[in-house]
Write a sequence for this structure.
């Protein structure tokens, strides 16, 4: 097994090296924020989750056992657990609308169609069972390898690939069903 590139960094943090803390934050914060934003649909809550994950990593640094787990895998698991805790507390469906930059070169009808497709994809992902949604988020949005994502989810690579296959099938079905809907219905109008 290859050595974890973050182990030395965590060791330095455990000894109180503030420069190492800054390096860890600059390396990990963007991915943690991205993961939490996608899971929660709320930038402020995502910042809280990312901050709590980094704080827990800092607290864990002095007692970290090298080689037991990859630090990145552990941090993703902590962030996912914090997201799920927040989602459980909410118990209501959050808005999955993310702020998106508009391409000025894109025509208005093309933008509307792209927005509708993006909403359908987000809704289809949100409708997936929790473990399938988690597998999709980690592999496609967090760009983790199958092995890394399996580690975060505490499943075998084969189990992860099975989750991904079922998720892709569900997403294809959901999106093909969405494509066949009357455009007036998808805009909230009835015939």
């Amino acid at each position: 097994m290859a050595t974890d590139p973050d182990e030395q960094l965590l060791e330095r943090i455990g000894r109180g090296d503030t420069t190492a803390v800054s390096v860890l934050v600059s390396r990990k914060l963007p991915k943690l924020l991205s993961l939490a934003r996608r899971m929660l649909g709320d930038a402020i809550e995502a910042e809280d989750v990312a901050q709590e994950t980094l704080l827990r990593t800092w607290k864990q640094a002095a007692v970290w056992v090298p080689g037991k787990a990859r630090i990145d895998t552990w941090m993703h698991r902590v962030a996912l657990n914090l997201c799920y805790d927040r989602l459980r507390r909410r118990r209501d469906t959050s808005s999955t609308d993310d702020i998106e930059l508009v391409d000025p070169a894109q025509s208005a009808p093309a933008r509307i169609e792209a927005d509708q497709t993006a909403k359908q994809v987000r809704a289809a992902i949100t409708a997936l069972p929790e473990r399938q949604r988690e597998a999709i988020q980690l592999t496609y949005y967090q760009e983790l390898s199958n092995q890394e994502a399996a580690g975060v989810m505490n499943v075998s690579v084969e189990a992860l690939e099975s989750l991904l296959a079922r998720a892709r099938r569900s997403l294809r079905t959901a999106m093909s069903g969405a494509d066949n809907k009357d455009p007036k219905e998808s805009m909230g109008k009835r015939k």
